[in-house]
Amino acid sequence: MYYDKATDKLKISDFPVTYSHGNLNILDNYYPWTVGLWSLLCEKEPKNTTIADMKSYYNILKITKAHSKPDGKPKISRYFKWINVVKPLYEHIQIEEHQLNAEITKIDNAKLKTPLRSNLKSFNNYISSSNTKQKKIYNNTTVTARNKCYR
Predict the structure, then answer these.
(1) Given this model, what pLDDT does residue 79 score?
(2) DSSP for the chain?
(3) Domain count, the chain
(4) How many CB atoms lie within 10 A of CB 125?
(5) 86, exposed or middle or buried, with CB in 10 Å at 0-12, 13-18, 19+?
(6) Is 18 within the bounds of a domain?
(7) Torsion angle defined by CA atoms of residues 37, 38, 41 and 47, in that order, rounded to the nearest 10 degrees
(8) Distances (CA, A) of 60 to 101, 116, 132
(9) What angle do CA 13, 71, 74 make, to 5 degrees?
(10) Is 129 part of a structural domain of the chain?
(11) Is 147 within a domain?
(12) Residue 29: which domain range?
């Protein structure tokens, strides 16, 4: 987190940060403003962090990509914070993205294997040749062939 003189705002990456009712707001996401979250955002060696603080910090990294260079590669350093906090979270983000991409690929492949509309003709022929009773619809009410509607 840093202060941007040009815009007179606090920012994470290129995104403005605001505070409201004890919460940090970034990109319409709210995180409880705690000592641990402040430590994760501002200190080189974060202290007094909780699991909830780590989850908030993880989500902030994910949405802002503050841990990445413009080309998408991580901002690597030898500092305590990178090695012990950011790097493990970055690796977890990479795993999640890989799993998401694998699911998207599965969905795309399933779409390719779906039968074309021309294969539905035999199904339509089966339906029309079966002994089903056809229904007529008037004014969004269903009327069977037996019940005639007189107007």
Answers:
(1) 85
(2) -EEETTTTEEEETTEEEEEETTEEEETTEEEE--HHHHHHHH-SS--S--HHHHHHHHHHHHHH-TTB-TTS-B---SSHHIIIIIHHHHHHHHHHHHHHHHHHHHHHHHHHHSPPGGGGHHHHHHHHHS-PPPEEEETTEEEESSS----
(3) 1
(4) 10
(5) buried
(6) yes
(7) -80
(8) 21, 43, 57
(9) 65
(10) no
(11) no
(12) 2-113
Which tokens hold the place of 39?
Answer: 């430590």
pLDDT in tens, 67-85: 888 887 888 888 888 888 9
Residue 55 in any domain: the answer is yes
pTM tops 0.85, yes or no: no
How many alpha carbons fall within 13 Å on the CB side of residue 11?
13
Q: Take residue 73 and report the two structure tokens written for it.
A: 């590669």
Let me know: does 132 contact 123? Beta carbons within 8 Å.
no
Q: How deeply is 20 buried, as exposed, middle or buried, from its count of CB atoms within 10 A (0-12, 13-18, 19+)?
A: exposed
149: left (phi over 0), alpha (psi -120 to 50) or beta: beta
Between CA 138 and CA 4 the distance in angstroms is 64
